[in-house]
Design brief:
The chain contains 10 helices and 10 strands. With about 425 residues, it is α+β, with helices and mostly antiparallel strands.
């Protein structure tokens, strides 16, 4: 029996072949396309063209051609797009691993390159496999471990996605017609005995005795994906968080009080002290073309206050249920400093540690009547971990742009 993976006879599983590989490939064709699109939407939601503080991917150049002003309607938009992105990515892991297993003999084909065209095909395969593993591994690590790539995840994931998807598109153009033909010709053939006539470079010349049918293998892969889906998807939906037992920020809410819902960054982590956020010490500085005003919390409470039911939706795929926030409208604060029409705003936090200590919002976000400098949530004052004494809440914005512990707002063109 050959001991070298470079020998075709080394790979003896009777499961490998056109039917199994084609089926997995078509599933990934649809799934990865959705992942790529929702990933680009997530990047657009950060408004990276608005201000350098929002842009974690400098020098993107032509790759930013699709960017647009992120809308505020529907208010659950980012909750949906990023929930789909993260949940689908996790769900596809068994499919991706099975697909890689099914084609691994190709990585050991000799000679490495029979011609220039074959060399280019092998190179594209390396980019496809390497890029796929890189995107899935970095995405899962960031979701599971929170900011494991501080300051660099966005650039790594963004550029990696373009390299991977370019190789993926080239591969799909070449292989999709063949995959569809394989599934049509081999329809109904589920086990090795029925597939003795199925031959290609992945089919073992000396297959081992079968231990599972190909449909059984598909069921195993599908069952793994279904398990990951069922233990992850609930963190994006009201009433189902308890089911997301394998997801960060999944499981039951930490409590049932007005401020007892999920957070990502605590006051202690951000370096916020009770002294600087006390009634006596804290002042909100608001700047604009009409000058500067400084407002205490008591003065903010004398302004017209409004309420909005909005969720917090995180890039990691989790979201809170709609919480009832109450505070001053951002467009009213802009009017205090001479901006009667909505304009962009630069938001500065008191936090000392962690990313997104500053953020920028577009004029359409400032102008939405649900966009607030929130002082209350659930009928009670904000807790320190939820941004006391004041935080931003904007419909459909990524959670990191809903800045906590706000100290300064600067309205005007950024």
């Amino acid at each position: 029996m050959p001991r070298s993976p470079f020998s075709p006879a080394f790979w003896r599983s009777p499961l490998r072949g056109p039917w199994f590989t084609s089926l997995l490939g078509l599933v990934l064709l649809g799934g990865i396309t959705v992942l790529f699109v929702t990933g680009l939407l997530s990047y657009a939601a950060y408004n990276p063209d608005l201000s350098p503080v929002n842009d974690k991917t400098p020098g993107k150049g032509l790759l930013g051609f699709y960017l647009f002003a992120w809308p505020t309607d529907p208010h659950w938009l980012y909750r949906l797009t990023q929930g789909v992105h993260v949940t689908l990515g996790i769900t596809l892991i068994p499919v991706l691993l099975a697909k890689l297993w099914s084609v691994v003999p190709k990585l050991f084909t000799l000679p490495p390159a029979r011609s220039l065209a074959h060399a280019l095909e092998r190179l594209s395969l390396l980019l496809l496999v390497g890029g796929g593993l890189f995107e899935f591994v970095t995405g899962v690590l960031n979701v599971q471990l929170d900011y494991i790539f501080p300051g660099s995840f966005y650039a790594l994931h963004f550029y990696g996605a373009w390299v991977f998807f370019a190789a993926f598109v080239a591969h799909a153009v070449l292989k999709t017609p063949l995959a569809l033909r394989n599934l049509r010709e081999l329809r109904g053939a589920s086990g090795p005995a029925e597939l003795r006539g199925e031959k290609d470079e992945l089919t073992s010349p000396n297959p081992a005795p079968p231990t599972v049918s190909r449909r059984g293998a598909v069921g195993l892969v599908g069952g793994g994906s279904l398990l990951l889906f069922g233990t992850t998807v609930g963190r994006s939906f009201d009433g189902l968080r308890w089911s997301a037992v394998l997801a960060p920020h999944g499981g039951a809410e930490p409590g049932n009080g007005p401020g007892d819902f999920q957070i990502n960054k605590t006051a202690a982590y951000a370096g916020i002290s009770e002294t600087e956020t006390s009634e006596e010490a804290w002042r909100l500085v608001v700047r604009g073309r009409g000058g500067t005003v400084r407002l205490s919390r008591a003065e903010l409470l004398r302004l017209p206050l409004h309420s909005a039911a909005l969720p917090i939706a995180c890039v990691e795929g989790w979201a809170t249920s709609d919480q009832l926030w109450r505070g001053a409208r951002l467009r009213d604060l802009a009017a205090l400093v001479g901006h009667d029409d909505p304009t962009d705003v630069f938001v500065e936090s008191l936090q000392r540690h962690g990313a997104f200590r500053h953020a920028a919002l577009r004029a359409n976000q400032v102008g939405d009547p649900r966009s607030l400098l929130a002082l209350f949530v659930g009928g009670a004052e904000l807790t320190p971990d939820h941004g006391h004494p004041a935080r931003i809440i904007v419909p459909a914005a990524p959670g990191v742009l809903n800045t906590k512990w706000v100290g300064r707002l600067t309205f005007g063109d950024l």
